[in-house]
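Entry 14. Structure prediction run on the chain below.
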Amino acid sequence: MTKRILCIIPACLFLQISFAQQPAAKQKKQLPIGVFDSGTGGLTVLQAMLTLDAFNNETGLPGPDGKPDFDKEYYQYLADQANMPYGNYAAENKTALLKEHVLKNMQFFMQPDYALQQKDSWLQKSKPEVKMIVIACNTATAYALGDIKNYVAQQQKNIPVIGVIDAGTKAALEYQQAHAKGTIGVFATAGTVASEGYPRTIKAMAAKLNMPEPSVVSQGGVGLAESIDRDWSYFSDTLTRVRSEYKGPSVKNTSLHIEPSLGAAYHFNTEGNKLLCEFDGSGNCLDMQLNDPANYARYHLVTLCEKMLLQHYTQPMNTLILGCTHYPYLKDTIAEVLNELYNFQSDGTFRYRAVLAEHVELIDPALETAKQAYVTMRSDNLQEDKPGKKENMFFISVPNTSLPGVQLQTDGWFTYAYKYGRTEGANKDYVKYVPFDTKNISAATYARFKMVLPDVYKKLQLEVKGIN
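Output returned:
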């Protein structure tokens, strides 16, 4: 057993880590594949892996053979729900803290245990390490992929690491090569957009393909992933009025401004509490706040089109990369809104047709990521060759309530101020890693999994008590 010190730039992070010896090659094949995201969005990548049939399982060559490519594999999934949304760390000047969280999550994949709470105490339960890590998180890929690979190398684990940005870029450029020239849109978290990870990768990959430099536009979807994962700062099932703690777009928010004159373009859903208003004595809406994932999508897609008009883009957007693994949950909604905007008229003219193609190809990086993971698994000779029942494990980070000074909201998660007020290098265990259950994941979220991710949901049914 060895102990190692991990150092990241600009700050050193001291993690006291104990690791077992590297498993033999035969044993390593029998280990699970680790899939990581800041929340539950990465399950879209796991769904793609479970259903992928793009290769011959015997030869490894391209071409379907009627069998799932990962049919003998099993998985550990980790959602860093306690520390999400990752997209806000850049805006709060805490990218070093973000890297620390990501590397601690990688440490979890390589350790042989996890936590289980019984009343007021935590028990340690055993689990296997992983043989490969798929970073199903665009923000983590953008800011920490290099650090992750260096960290894994430091531990002498020889574990391949796959990120999502290259995969999404490849699919977008393939579409551009086969169709009329247009602008590539990047719809991602604010942190991924701030990193410039996609534009850099798109331009670099296009240059390698001898393509002209593509036109690229980016839009940060503040609140969209958060509302999908029911982050209290952006969404609450029980809200009936506007609130001061809200962090998303509003009429009064100058940086995330809802423009009243664009109300017809937004076309917000006003049913129930999906759109909240602050009224004056005459019944006029003085402020509004979003409380529905589809309304967040509507706001950001209109904002994206308005940006293109203001910046005089000459090539209509014909490709949109869903650069956050949560966004494919709303793929149909996004397609519907883009169609509405293409046909939207203002003062007798089509407002957005100069910047929006009639058909916008939505790029879900999950499929390409799954393909890349399979090719890597084969090239590293890591594929399991023995069939049999294997236990998939689904983990989520939760606040470590025994840590002195921890600050929680009424829903039991970290307050916004505490979450982004922490300092890297403090060597504190801010979270515990526990299995999915019906308390840390809502019933509405499981219902979404059942509808959108049926193969993942079947795996969850075997592991999570209390879901149908």
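The longest strand covers residues 12-19.
Filed with the rest of this week's runs.
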